[in-house]
UniProtKB/TrEMBL annotation:
Gene: tcuA
InterPro entries, per database record: CobZ, FAD-dep_OxRdtase_2_FAD-bd, FAD-oxidoreductase_2, FAD/NAD-bd_sf, Succ_DH/fumarate_Rdtase_cat_sf
Highest classification ranks of the organism: Bacteria, Pseudomonadati, Pseudomonadota, Betaproteobacteria, Burkholderiales
Keywords of this entry: FAD, Flavoprotein, Oxidoreductase
Protein name, entry field: FAD-dependent tricarballylate dehydrogenase TcuA
FAD-dependent oxidoreductase 2 FAD-binding domain boundaries: 3-429
Needed co-factor(s): FAD
């Protein structure tokens, strides 16, 4: 019998496995994906949002706990557990030394991400390099790793973990950490959650999955069926407006279109539907997938002019380019008169002050609904560009309710030996919304906590620890 079983293969699972092994537990990690696709959504990440009181290597200035908390409170609209959120925030202030010990390297913010240099530490080589470093370290420490090993169900007894069933195999362990992600790759579950809209459409049919195809929510559904306490709305997620030409799975960050705040966004009827300049892009980019999901056909179009070029990270795929707005409307397939009315109304409403995309400037609209609060400048300089957008789901927020020890709850009672980390419990902190890098904060913080707690639970269950 293994001491600690870790189910999942991304950042949170690897942090749990490493911490449990460092505590002396024997550890088996089960990854549903084949080796070449290991790492879950973590392989597509770039950075970790970190609290710090002073400049630290790749991080500039300071990003204190209270500011971090207020940023999180704002994007979630208060739908967050403050106790658990602050725990994750504090953990982010002292995890990077440990990460370096396991081979993770950091680099300063590059062009296009300089606005995050104070708040986010970037991984050298991105999430794929981070995942690979953790796997190398886990193998070196003696963590057993099995790929292509999806777990079908958990065997529980009064909220206590007994065994995991992986096909015909039954795997017992003294403690278990579930870090198997959300259900974003399960199209039927997405359809069930989102249902049909008033037009008779099934919005979820038009979603792309920015990350792994292996997050089917099998254990999430199994735990719900077995009475685990849940938290979160199944329609809430980290959901980004991405290039409509993106692949169905694993498009990652390169499919994101980052010029939204520099122009206007219209739906397929050429109507604006939300404030493009509400807040800084890293704090609001992950609401736009949901906004587009509620538009007809789940489509929208980001439109900019030449003044915006060079102020955002360009997408992998070039957008439509035209010498006139009328021509751009035709190329995007939009109704030309309706589009021109929208642009004319927007241009007339712009009150241009001191444009500065690095601050919440005074360039805004007046008498326009919806307003554009910041960075509002007329679309008047050719050439013009347009990008078709569709919803890109990164991970879902419905998950397991946990406590500060990352223990899964059943009827309000914490399990003595079943823990959850990463996306499967992120809804405790993220009720809605997102801010860049906080998903990795949650996964790292609660993965490390879950690993330690699982090792301690294994001791109580009679483990005979070997030296890690």
């Amino acid at each position: 019998m293994v001491d600690v079983l870790v189910i999942g293969g991304g950042n949170a699972a690897l942090c749990a496995a490493l911490m449990a092994r460092e505590a002396g537990a024997s550890v088996l990690l089960l990854e549903a994906a084949p080796r070449e696709w290991r790492g879950g959504n973590s392989q597509h990440t770039r950075n970790l949002r970190c609290m710090h009181e002073a400049p630290q290597d790749v991080l500039t200035e300071a990003y204190p706990e209270e500011e971090y908390w207020q940023d999180l409170l704002k994007v979630t609209g208060g739908q967050t557990n403050e106790q658990l959120a602050r725990l994750a925030i504090r953990e982010s202030s002292h995890c990077r030394g440990w990460m370096r010990q396991h081979g993770v390297r950091f680099q300063p913010s590059l062009s296009g991400t300089l606005h995050l240099s104070r708040t986010n530490a970037f991984f050298m080589g991105g999430g794929k390099a981070l995942v690979n470093a953790y796997y190398r370290s886990a193998e070196r420490l003696g963590v057993q790793i099995r790929y292509e090993s999806p777990v079908d169900r958990l065997e529980l007894r009064a909220g206590r973990f007994v065994a995991a069933h992986c096909g015909a195999e039954r795997i017992e362990a003294r403690a278990c950490v579930v870090a198997s992600g959300g259900f974003e790759s399960n199209r039927e579950w997405l359809r069930e959650a989102w249902g049909q809209n008033e037009a008779g459409e099934w919005p979820a049919d038009n979603f792309a999955i920015r990350g792994t195809r292996f997050n089917m929510g099998v254990l999430l559904r199994d735990l719900i069926a077995q009475g685990a306490d849940t938290i979160g709305d199944p329609t809430q997620s980290h959901s980004v407006a991405i290039d409509a030409r993106a692949p169905l799975y694993d498009g990652g960050i390169c499919t994101r279109v980052d010029c939204v705040s520099l122009g206007i966004v219209v739906n397929k009827h050429a109507q604006r539907f939300y404030d493009e300049g509400e807040d800084f892009w890293p704090k609001r980019y992950a609401i736009w997938g949901r906004l587009v999901a509620h538009q007809p056909g789940q489509l929208a179009y980001s439109v900019i002019d030449a003044k915006a070029i060079g102020r955002f990270m360009p997408p992998v795929f070039p957008g439509e380019k035209a010498d006139s707005l009328e021509q751009l409307a035709r190329q995007l397939g939009l109704d030309e008169p309706a589009f021109m009315r929208t642009v004319k109304d927007y241009n007339a409403a712009c009150r241009v002050g001191s444009f500065d995309h690095a601050v919440l400037d005074d360039c805004h609209t007046e008498g326009l609904s919806p307003a554009k609060t910041h960075w509002a400048r007329p679309l008047d300089t050719a050439p013009f560009y347009g990008y078709a957008l569709k919803p890109g789901i990164t991970f879902t927020y419905l998950g397991m309710k946990v406590n500060e020890q990352a223990a899964v709850h059943f009827g309000g009672q914490a399990s003595p030996n079943l823990f959850a980390a990463g996306e499967i419990m992120a809804g405790n902190v993220l009720g809605k919304g997102y801010t860049a890098g906080v998903g990795m904060t949650i996964g790292t913080a609660f993965g490390r906590i879950a690993g330690v707690q699982a090792a301690q639970a294994a001791i109580k269950n009679g483990a005979n620890f070997a030296t890690a």
